[in-house]
Amino acid sequence: ARVTSKSTLRTFNKGPNGGGKVFHVHLLDVYGGEIRASFFNEAVDKHFDLLQLGNCYTLSRGSVKIADQRYNPCSHRYELVFDKMAQIEEVDDDEHIEAVKLSLTDLRSIQTRQLPFTADICGVLSNAGPCIAFTSKEGRELVKRELTVVDDTATSITVTLWGDRAKQEDKLFEGNPVVGLKGVMVKEWNSGRSGSLSESGALVFSPKIADAERVQRWWADGGKTQSITALSVVGGGAGGAG
Question: CATH assignment of 107-230?
């Protein structure tokens, strides 16, 4: 299976027995099935550095439980849990496994859906702002970058990237590339609708899917000069870190 997203390492308090630590990955197999896997405590120590975004692995000696959809953005009914017994091995890349699985929503549809919700989108980067460091009201040091994404429904939305995703090289965002964004949390902001890429989400440049090719053709064939309906108020990137 391929790792299509990887969370940061989190610690938690288990009460009188002390604390614990956990991280999550999303795994995509050759059949297009995607499931979340959680690694706890000793499994974190053994496998956090081994499991890298985009690489392929075999995983065994985990357990299966029914997914809690309140906290699990994957659509799979089940999720995997790995502890100190987990056996993980990196394997050669399997070209038959997609880089990411997108269940796409066109931007015009986002205009009428009940807020808040999470969506996967694909479009052209019509604008990419600079990487900005700032301090939140709670005193947290944050980094963000605001993107304007437009698709062939002639609709655009602002999506905010956070942390390491925002820090990627400026040149990646130049030249109006097509991007796929998985796990965009859409909320009301400044009387408009704006998105924030969740920690468990994914950003893919030039995804190898038919939707990306269609949007690229639309942009090249005159879409870039069309009148665009903007869902987001200018300067109104999503206000909460994902």
Answer: 2.40.50.140
Contacts of 91 (CB under 8 A, 6+ apart): 56, 57, 58
32 φ/ψ angles, rounded to the nearest 5 degrees: 90, 5
The stretch 134-151 carries a mean pLDDT of 93
Q: What is the pLDDT of residues 198-214, one digit of tens each?
A: 887 889 999 889 999 99
Residue 27 zone, left/alpha/beta (φ > 0; ψ -120 to 50; rest): beta
- Judged by DSSP in three states, 162 sits in strand
Candidate CATH numbers 3.40.50.300, 2.60.40.10, 2.40.50.140, 3.30.2350.10; the one for domain 2-91: 2.40.50.140
Task: Supply the pLDDT for residue 8.
Answer: 84
> From its phi and psi, is residue 219 left (phi > 0), alpha (psi between -120 and 50) or beta?
alpha
Give the pTM: 0.76
